[in-house]
Amino acid sequence: MSAVERLRASMSLFEKCWPSVVRGIVAVRLGNLTGMAISVSYHRNLTHRAFKLPKWLEYSLAYCAAHAIQGDPIDWVSTHRCHHLYADTGRDPHSPIYGFWFSQMMWFFDSYNLTKKNNVRDLEKQWFYRFMHKTYWLHPLALSVLLFAIGGVPYVIWGMGFVLIELIVVREVRSELACNIYGQFALITFGEGWHNNHHAFEYSARHGHEWWEIDIGWYIIKFLQAIGLATCVKLPSQTQKLAALNKSKPRLS
């Protein structure tokens, strides 16, 4: 086979594979964007008020997070605030005392616990979050329609499929069971894997307290702070971290 024929064969193979490559890139980018927004927006910004953003950026990130198919901001924040208030007790919306499957998945269908929203007055006062709460499912549906318009059914399968993977990874791997054991999950959950750190200092914008604890969500917040968009960033002091460490050590009788 001559060099020209080899080049033609390579180009033909490239043309056949290129659509799949593009779909893969779109899927990964979409999944990463929604997963990042869950961590930075829903979790650290809206739930714990670990930092402040201009409203246009706050709403933009929350809108991206809404496409992770984890619920609208009011529902998500309400559930997570309840989780911190009643962690690992019978009133925790995804309490482990009801068994593995409930804490990992079935709690999502517990409408009784998931309809208590008296702890999100700050969000309910804002028109944007009320609008998202009332129209939530229209937005992931609109994304699916957009993907279909761009590339047909394959784009919908790849794009929304990867969002669902992010749903499983960010929601489930962020759970106590996985993250208390495997901090390295922080790499694929934008820092959510440092779950013990987070529960020790839930107000902190940073979950990875040490330099080697990778926390991509924090790196994004730090960048936003550097360019003047993130303000009032809350972090624990070294004294507070040492006090928490000493408190967690077992006492010898």
UniProtKB/TrEMBL annotation:
Q: Which GO terms describe its cellular component?
A: endoplasmic reticulum membrane
InterPro entries linked: Acyl-CoA_DS (IPR015876), FA_desaturase_dom (IPR005804)
Segments passing through the bilayer: 21-42, 136-157
For this UniProt record, the keywords arranged alphabetically read as follows:
Fatty acid biosynthesis, Fatty acid metabolism, Iron, Lipid biosynthesis, Lipid metabolism, Membrane, Oxidoreductase, Transmembrane, Transmembrane helix
Protein location: Membrane
* Keyword Phosphoprotein belongs to the record: no
Keyword Iron assigned:
yes
Pathway(s) where this gene product acts: Lipid metabolism
Show where the Fatty acid desaturase domain sits.
Answer: 26-212
Question: Pfam families, per this entry?
Answer: FA_desaturase
Homology family: Belongs to the fatty acid desaturase type 1 family.
Q: What is the protein name stated in its UniProt record? A: Palmitoyl-monogalactosyldiacylglycerol delta-7 desaturase, chloroplastic
Naturally occurring in which organism (per UniProt): Cucurbita argyrosperma subsp. sororia
Q: Which gene encodes it?
A: ADS3
